[in-house]
Amino acid sequence: MAAEKTLYRNCTLYTGTRVIRGGSLLVDGAGVVVDAGGGQTVSVPADARVVDLKGRLVLPGFVDVHVHGGGGWDMLRGTPEDFAGAARYHAAHGTTSLLATTGGAPEADTSELLRHARRAIEERNTGGADVIGVHLEGPFLHPARKGAFREEWLHPPDFGEMDRYLDTSGGTIRIVTLAPELEGGEAFVRRLCALGIRVSVGHSDASYEQMLDAVEWGARRTTHHFNGMRPLHHRDPGAAGAGLMLPALTTELIADGLHVHPAAIRFLFDVKGVCSVCVITDAVAQAGLPDGVYGSVETSGGEIYLSGTRTLAGSSSTMLGSLRRVLSYTGRTLENVLPSFTAVPAREAGAASRKGTLEAGKDADFLVLDESLELLETYVRGRRVYVGAGAAYEDERGGDGSC
Predict the structure, then answer these.
(1) What's CA 74's distance to the chain center, in Å?
(2) Is residue 1 included in any domain, yes or no?
(3) Residue 42 pLDDT greater than 90, yes or no
(4) What is the helix (H) or strand (E) element at residue 395, kind and residue range?
(5) Which helix H or strand E contains 63, and what residues bound it?
(6) What phi and psi, each to the nearest 5 degrees, are found at residue 63?
(7) pLDDT confidence of 179, banded at 50, 70, 90?
(8) Which end of the chain is more exposed for a tag (fewer CB within 10 A), N or C?
(9) In a 10 Å sphere around its CB, with 0-12 CB exposed, 13-18 middle and 19+ buried, how is residue 152 labelled?
(10) Are 150 and 234 in the same domain?
């Protein structure tokens, strides 16, 4: 017997390509979108459960392609509990898919993360956001732009080490952040691109001219743009200038208002356009925790630094918080900035065929929010993984449907 379908009706539906007032979203029992459109155009099966959302907003779930942890859970520790905990934490802030991101650690630690990420991807049972792949941030990074990474962890490209990562990951590595100007960079970038892996320039001291070379070799994105790279100067545009000027490059953005000034966030959207900006959190385990000292890092007012320094050590940002800030900083409309949180990162993760928009045949990853953009519910593949205050609704086929 087939599982029942559910129709979510009477909502303002943001499919990712259009906005539909009085919209409806039909989801099958396997958690796949059957139809999305106006209330009069979506046919309702006789046995479908019908849920009245009372005019609330329905958005595609956010896709975070650069995240290390959150809520005290640290994917860098590489345990199943950390993966599940981080996935639940970020689902409570609107993320429905993520790339588990490494941190330039020793090979043994990185391999441990890759093993557990592979299991989480295969099992698909985190109870929160889907882990859909891995973002390998290092260790092939430039020491001059190491940020919070320890210099002894960083080194030029090593084909043997990369092959071991590829083998351990079982083909789940989607993005590799590296410094292409390091010795062996050209051959390394070309090989990764030939394998279908997205090469991202980050923690790099590359000049503008070296960035031109990297793009020719196949690099197509930058990691946390403006941060951890040679900055823009009018006589030396550097990696930051190249990201702004080269249409081939998509730019990651930490939109917490700290890593990048609000005016620079607005400038990036104006220059690159929404389809070339990929909003990320770069969240670490301490995101969402009270102020204090946590080992080598300390947090204060949501800011996270290496203890005793002013070196940023990741972010406490969430995707929903970032959306609110981008709307405020840019003055743009929700439908105008939404692709940078959904369709663009899904593309960057190689998951655009099933994530990022609400269309027939794609996973039913969606958010229900009120008009103030307060998150009421998060659904991953049709299954509710988070419910907030004020989320009660009416099930028209019987029962109160309260959350």
Answers:
(1) 16
(2) no
(3) no
(4) strand 394-395
(5) strand 62-67
(6) -115, 120
(7) very high
(8) N
(9) exposed
(10) yes
22-38 average pLDDT score? 95
Residue range 96-111, pLDDT digits in tens: 999 999 998 899 999 9
Report whether pLDDT(2) > 60. no
Residues 322 and 366 in one domain: no
The CA distance from 363 to 142, in Å, is 38
Contacts (Cβ under 8 Å, ≥6 apart) of 249:
201, 215, 219, 220, 221, 222, 242, 243, 276
Q: Can you tell me whether residue 61 is helix, strand or coil? A: coil
Q: Which position has the token pair 């080598």? A: 296
Please report, for the domain that includes residue 153, its CATH number.
3.20.20.140
Total structural domains within the chain: 2
**DSSP H helical segments within 238-308, as ranges?**
238-245, 262-272
Burial class (CB in 10 A: 0-12, 13-18, 19+), 202: buried
* Alpha-carbon span 364 to 289, nearest angstrom: 30
Amino acid 389: pLDDT: 83
**Pairing state between β 49-52 and 6-14:** parallel
In which band, very low, low, confident or very high, does the pLDDT at 55 lie, cut at 50, 70 and 90?
Answer: very high
Cα(first)–Cα(last) distance of the chain, in Å?
Answer: 26
What domain range is 387 assigned to? 6-59+358-395
Question: Which residue, chain included where needed, has tokens 């065929």?
Answer: 353
Q: Are residues 40 and 69 in the same domain?
A: no
Whether 291 contacts 230, CB under 8 Å: no
Residue 191: name the closest of 227, 159, 145, 231 by CA. Answer: 159
Catalytically active residues are 282
Instruction: Record the tokens describing residue 358, joined without a space.
Output: 């609400």
Looking at residues 217-240, what average pLDDT do you find? 98
Q: Which residue is associated with the tokens 């900083």?
A: 329
| pLDDT at site 396 | 57
User: By C-alpha distance, which of 62, 31, 13 is closest to 346?
Assistant: 62
- Is 401 domain-assigned? no
CB 118 within 8 A of CB 168: yes
Structural tokens at position 319: 């995707």
Classify each residue of 187-198 as buried b or exposed e, where b means 16 or more C-beta atoms within 10 Å of its C-beta: ebbebbbeeebb
Identify the band that residue 344 occupies on the pLDDT scale cut at 50, 70 and 90.
very high
For residue 56 the two structure tokens come to: 């609330």
Which 8-state DSSP code applies to residue 40? T
Cα gap 258→224, rounded to integer Å: 12
The answer on 112 and 188 residing in a single domain is: yes
